[in-house]
Design brief:
- It is globular, with a radius of gyration of 23 Å.
- Helix content is about 40%, strand content about 20%.
- It has 10 helices and 9 strands.
- By secondary structure, the protein is an alpha/beta fold.
Length: about 325
């Protein structure tokens, strides 16, 4: 019996020596793909998280910007990477909206592993302060008297920045002209210079404190702490004008469970470290656990589908 046991131990040792050693994740930097241009809302939000996530993971996060085609350029870049956890995508609600708004379905949500939510925020209607109105009533009167004269900055067909502005035009019976940008960063100089006169953007310090910027209504159920003097659309008689966006982290489906769980744990812990900084900037934690974020996304997408149907737009 003892000889048999020794032979088994010897065989096991040979097998272990011949087997490759699996390194613990992460053993190298993790690439973070942001499907927008530098300086936009997603970039600003992620930079609040970055150092805290690096501390939790014990490695560096290398940011790669890949803006364009309503986030499809960056999203496809992340999907082209190996499913090893070393490439993640930090993006917005657009990732889900593209699955129903882009002909040919470039991907489905099942192509991704959900790492977890990051933040969410309601939108506000911002106008360049050179416009001849100070409130929503004046905005509507001007837009009706000057059909198409007000251009709005948006971040692609499959983005809440466009959908909510289109909903505003529908609700108010006005004609507004969309102007697409690969990210809010490239679009802001045109907004500040009055080349585009309005935008739906986060009710956050990043936008509210911008030059030549006036907030005239918030698309939330209640007024927000950052701009308590700004009324909600609901207060002003437009109860359907409630909307915003969320931010999340994703990886290609099929990544090792260890990598997924470590990324999730790092994201959750990092959020707790930077929560006050996020809230000061107008970002709020999404009230779901990482494993429940997919269900949250599906419910949000159902809401936007209703919006698309109301607007008469095609759903794929």
């Amino acid at each position: 019996m003892l000889k048999t046991f020794k032979r088994l131990i010897a065989a096991l040792a040979v097998t272990m020596a011949a087997s490759p050693v699996v390194a613990a994740f992460p053993e190298k930097p993790v690439t973070v793909v942001i499907p927008y241009q530098p300086g936009g809302g997603t970039d600003v939000m992620f930079r609040i998280f970055q150092t805290a996530i690096e501390e939790e993971l014990g490695t560096t996060l290398v940011v790669e910007y890949a803006g364009g085609a309503a986030t499809l350029v960056g999203t496809r870049k992340a999907l082209a990477a190996p499913a090893d956890g070393y490439t993640v995508l930090v993006t917005t609600s657009a990732i889900a909206l593209n699955t129903i708004m882009v002909e040919g379905k470039p991907y489905t949500m099942d192509d991704f592993e959900v790492i977890g939510s990051m933040t969410e925020y309601p939108y506000a209607l911002y106008v360049n302060d050179q416009q001849p109105f100070d409130d929503l009533e004046g905005f509507i009167a001007y837009a009706k008297a000057n059909p198409g004269a007000l251009n709005y900055l948006h971040l692609g067909q499959a983005s809440p920045t466009r959908l909510l502005a289109a909903r505003l035009a529908h609700e108010t019976g006005t004609e507004l002209t969309p102007v697409a940008y690969p990210g809010s960063g490239p679009g802001q100089p045109d907004f500040y210079a009055n080349r585009v006169q309005m935008q739906m953007a986060s009710a956050s310090k990043q936008y509210y404190a911008g030059p030549n910027t006036k907030a005239i209504a918030v698309a939330s159920n209640d007024r927000v702490a950052l701009m308590p003097e700004v009324p909600t659309f609901k207060e002003l008689g437009y109860p359907n004008m409630v909307g915003g966006t969320w931010f999340g982290m994703f990886a290609k489906a099929g990544i090792p469970v260890e990598a997924r769980d470590k990324l999730r744990a790092a994201l959750v812990a990092a959020e707790q470290k930077v929560l006050k900084e996020l809230e000061a900037a107008g970002h709020y934690a999404v009230p779901v656990k990482p494993e429940d974020f997919r269900a949250y996304i599906d419910a949000d997408l159902a809401h936007w589908k209703e919006d698309l149907i109301r607007l008469g737009e095609k759903i794929y």
